Fold these 2 entries.
Entry 1:
Amino acid sequence: MHLPLPDDFHAHLRQGDLMPGYVRDLAAQFGRAIIMPNTVPAMTSAKAIAEYKKEILAAAKDVRPDFEPLMTFKLNPNYTEQDLKDMMAVGVVAGKYYPAGVTTNSADGISDFEGIFPVVALMEKLGLVLCVHGEEPGEFCLDREPAFIKRVEALAEKFPKLKIVFEHVSSAKSVEAVKKLGPNVAATITVHHLIMTLDDIVGDALRPHHFCKPLPKRPEDRAAIREAAFSGSPKFFLGTDSAPHQLGKKECPCGAAGVYSAPVALPLLVQEFEKAGHLDKLPDFIAGFGADFYGIPRTQKQVEIVKEPWTVPATVNGVVPLAAGETLEWKIKR
Ligand code: NCD
Ligand code: ZN
């Protein structure tokens, strides 16, 4: 079966020695990806982002020479219009809003919501997309995302031309809110939120490699996410939030949040959409609606995927991937 080559509208590649392996895993399945800026140090300047992009392109070369990283910066209230223009000139298409402390490497995130309005107004003016990690600090863990919906609604109302992506929606309430808001508000959906609930993290045993933010929630939340993904609504598209953490950073007393799905994303998606009887909705979900929302051309590239069982390795580049040890039905043909 041929599919359009997917775009990933939310991916983490990290920095340093581990980065090239993560880039290759991602570029093996995707033609373009939104690269998240929560590196250490964070991506906050045109210079750093240009350098990062160069390293990503170099690492992708052997796997997919035409891989396109779409760069982002970490939002803070201090950027000037010139800072934003400089970042756009090196390939930045979006800024990411992390509320302080809600996820990996977000201690330097936003605690004064209204303090970001001036920068957000500049983003609206320049046509930069605002990607939002929608969780309210300080709330009970399962309520953090629902508690943040009011912020997304406030942003959408105050900045009617701003494109906002409610990243990795994990609750029925957020899905509902995104549907109700105007066409400038969309959401990404991950592979793991399509298939998991909280039971898959702590229901029978503690499964640290499934632990991620926002937490997968109740069965009815997963049902709403699946319904949105299978609905054919242009407001919902793939962003894997593939977030590699080395095995030792997950299997320890204070484990990191993040699911590594890049090595298995497309086969798992095909499997899930097929099982649900919605394969016809997959092309737009992986390679249509996201590009339309970001205002970039839809890909003309294709990937071939064949029904050929394979077993997901226990580790990939030192990380335990999603579905490790499981046998998947579909395999990408190289
Ligand atoms: C991500 C990471 O590890 O960078 N972790 C996660 O649990 N999803 C950050 C994020 O997107 O929240
Ligand atoms: Zn993420």
Entry 2:
Amino acid sequence: MSIRGLFITVEGGEGVGKSTNLAFLESFLRDNGVDVVCTREPGGTAIGEDIRRLLLQIRQEEVCAMTELLLIFAARAQHIMEAIEPALAAGRTVLCDRFTDATYAYQCGGRRVAWDNVKQLESLVQDKLRPDVTLLLDAPTVIGMSRARVRGELDRFEQEDLDFFDRVRSSYLQQAKNDSGRYRVIDASVSLDQVQQQLLTVANEVLSFWHQRSVGS
Ligand code: Z5A
């Protein structure tokens, strides 16, 4: 039987550099012999990517916060069953661009959905599955927004205002404070080189965690 893989998630507000740094982390871990699977939420499966399109699409009608929440967890249920669990069970390290902490940040922090609603869905959909390590890329909201907005057309989330994204950021920082054993907070407001220097420290920590788990099994 193979050792269960590590589940690493990368979180942060829009435009803080998650995709860029996830790719950096992926190649560092691969170069060091770790078998990595990269994925994202919402998405990561064919059904999940269909749901993602539905979630990001700008619509005429207002999208009810509960509809949004249930769609996110519907995509997550498929993602866990089809991609995350099989990879972890096969001993592969899963590197995921956003997971349930994003739901606490965006739906509870941003949309003001009750925390307990997310907690209940988390237990229902994930059972005991939680990330082993979470990297929070943190930067003042205006920095992330300005980096993301050079891309042009805005999706349904990107159309939210500064207050919304400030609430998202505060929620992430609070989560990191409440679960400091799992979280590593990276200052993402500095140059990419400086961000990646900080990431290397965490990546080396992940490597030694991985080696310990391999030896201990
Ligand atoms: N959502 C939700 O509401 N609830 C949930 O549970 C989940 C998601 C899972 C889509 O997610 C939306 O889903 C998201 C929340 C919601 N909406 N928002 N906002 P997403 O992760 O796909 O969307 P995103 O946050 O908008 O990602 P992004 O805009 O692609 O940003 P990013 O991946 O963090 O950044 P990036 O693409 O790596 O970098 C952006 C640009 O900045 C790029 O040109 C880089 O070269 C540049 N960059 C990166 N780092 C630096 C530094 N350090 N200096 C200078 N320039 C930099």
